[in-house]
Amino acid sequence: MARGDRRPTLETVAVRAGVSRATVSRVINDQPVAGPSRRAVERAIADIGYVPNQAARSLVTQRTGLIALVLPEPSTRVFSDDQFFPRLIQGVSQELETADEQLVLMLAGSTASRDRIQRSAVAGRVDGVMLASLHGADPLAAALAKSGIPVVGNERVLGSVEVPSVGVDNRGGARAAVEHLVSRGRRRIATIAGPLDMIAGIDRLDGYFDAITGTQEPVVVQGDFTRESGETAMERLLDEHPGVDAVFAASDLMAEGAMQVLRHAGFRVPEDVAVAGFDDITRAACTDPPLTTVRQPIGSLGRHLAAQLLNLISGNAVEPARTLPTDLILRDST
Fold it and tell me: For the chain, give me the number of helices (H) and strands (E)?
């Protein structure tokens, strides 16, 4: 279109296709139209380069084409070396791109940001919301669900609100990792647990208890999934439980931090202390030694999360809770 030319309109397309303006509108909004008329409109749109007015289209369809992924974490956590977030976002983006929907990333690291996101969703600025990395009985999930906003959670949502969810087998994966350590003859297995206000932290700790019960006394220290918390927790273990000969860390970053402390303290991994993690981030295969870990399908998790929400928005039946499998990946750290 040359400079100064008017932007093509519905009327322009209708004249070119030899149909009514209403027929063009129905084609653009994916409503039933007879085959010959639909093909004529589609050819006309391609010939003249017509681009639908999204605002006008939204008035007809009651859809914005925008899908929100809300992460109740500070930006310093989301944009850190924790590969969970970029891989989740990538999976969500792939699914939405296939469905011709646009992702909107929203960080809800404070009460003010939560309130702002709630107002935006209730005002209809997005078609639905995915919630990931939830802590505790997050009030945002309940508020959105009560407002009638289509919402899906990554992992089960704590509290009384019922929200469809997509998660992974955290408990089974953790149990498999600790059972592996037991099978290697480790007699004093500790765990560096994740945050206990998150389903992932709770379930991975339960998996540790499942495997350890009846074999030896549990040893639990607290972390928050970060490398720094793994370092602090390992220092505490060496100080308070010097007989520990294996550690299951509830995230790979914590496991990496634990191995660093062990090396600095003169311990060999796995000869003196075996270490296993959870996530199978890319760097897990590159640690020294390479880390035994539980692989969770983060990219697939993102795709399933988006697909679940799109089904909910479209009024299709959805599973109340979908759980994706995990796999134990054996490497040299155990």
Answer: 13, 12
